[in-house]
């Protein structure tokens, strides 16, 4: 059983920062990639950033320069550092991990963490 859990969301003022964490746990052999998605109120979930095993991070243009993905592979954890937050960044942020277990490779979603940017 694989679990993916996000944390670190909360209420922050415009211009502020937050760091989200995503941890994958359970029985698996490796993580191929981990991605962050943003779901704004009333909108579809949208990919915003990700990092693949052995590769650099990639970003949606709208967050490039403000958001940074990093990883701690030893802890099966990926981080999303969000700086200069704007009200339009208010959303539920989800982590998706592509995980190999035996002969299978599957996507696993976390439950999401709420980020609210408001004064």
Would you give an account of this structure?
This protein is an all-beta fold and about 120 residues long. Helices cover about 0% and strands about 60% of the residues. Strands 2, 4, 5, 6, 9, 10 and 11 form a 7-stranded mixed β-sheet that branches. β7 (about 65-70) and β8 form a beta hairpin. It is elongated and about 50 Å long. It starts with a strand and ends with a strand.
Tell me the major beta sheet: 7 strands, mixed
Uncertain residue segments: none
Give average pLDDT, whole number: 96
Helical content class: under 10%
State the order of secondary-structure elements, H for helix, E for strand. Answer: EEEEEEEEEEE
Q: Report the strand count.
A: 11
List keywords for this structure.
seven-stranded mixed β-sheet; single chain; mainly beta; elongated; 119 residues; four-stranded antiparallel β-sheet
Summed up:
The chain has no helices and 11 strands. By secondary structure, the protein is mostly beta strands. Strands 2, 4, 5, 6, 9, 10 and 11 form a 7-stranded mixed β-sheet that branches.
SSE blueprint:
Blueprint: E1 2-7, E2 10-12, E3 18-26, E4 30-39, E5 46-52, E6 57-59, E7 67-72, E8 77-82, E9 91-101, E10 104-109, E11 113-117
Parallel strand pairs: 2-11
Antiparallel strand pairs: 1-3, 3-8, 4-5, 4-9, 5-6, 7-8, 9-10, 9-11
């Amino acid at each position: 059983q694989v679990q993916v859990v996000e944390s670190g969301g909360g209420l922050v003022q415009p211009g502020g920062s937050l760091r989200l964490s995503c941890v994958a746990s359970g029985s698996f052999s490796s993580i191929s990639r981990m991605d962050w998605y943003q779901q704004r109120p009333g909108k579809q979930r949208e990919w915003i950033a990700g990092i693949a095993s052995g590769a650099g991070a990639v970003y949606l243009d709208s967050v490039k320069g403000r958001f940074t993905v990093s990883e701690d592979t030893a802890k099966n954890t990926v981080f999303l550092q969000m700086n200069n937050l704007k009200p339009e960044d208010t959303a539920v942020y989800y982590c998706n991990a592509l995980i190999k277990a035996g002969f299978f490779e599957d996507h696993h979603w976390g439950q999401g963490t709420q980020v609210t940017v408001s004064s």
